[in-house]
Amino acid sequence: MWIAVDRVGKKFINCSFGSRGTETGQLLWEKLEKKEIGEVMTDHWRAYAAFLPETIHTQSKAETYTVEGYNSILRHFLARLRRKTKCYTKSLEMLKYSVLLLMKYRNRELTIFHASSVK
């Protein structure tokens, strides 16, 4: 799973599911093409160089703290993403829905109704 986050607005932007290779990263980059992007911060994973424009791309492990924090949030709330767990994803489609639902909730784009608030 590849995710893109907004460091300034502190929000999930989008995600893409697949291998750690260039193809999955390219899919995510295509989803972001219509967004106004100032800078892209990544670690030194080779796949990034294949599709990210050099003019806006900075490779530095010191600059990936925001996305690493969001990876931690995903692992915290979704047991299927934790290491060494009995929970695992049997369906890629359900994993996608779980991640997208959590992203929308964390971005405050989703309202959760509690049974006590329904009259």
Automatic annotation (TrEMBL):
Signal peptide: none
GO molecular function: DNA binding; transposase activity
This protein's UniProt keywords: DNA recombination, Transposition
Statement: the UniProt record of this protein carries the keyword NAD: no
Protein name per Swiss-Prot or TrEMBL: IS1 transposase
Lineage start: Archaea, Methanobacteriati, Methanobacteriota, Stenosarchaea group, Methanomicrobia
Listed GO biological process terms: DNA transposition
Source species of the chain: Methanosarcina acetivorans (strain ATCC 35395 / DSM 2834 / JCM 12185 / C2A)
Function: Absolutely required for transposition of IS1.
Keyword Metal-binding: no
Domain of life from the UniProt record: Archaea
Family classification: Belongs to the transposase 27 family.
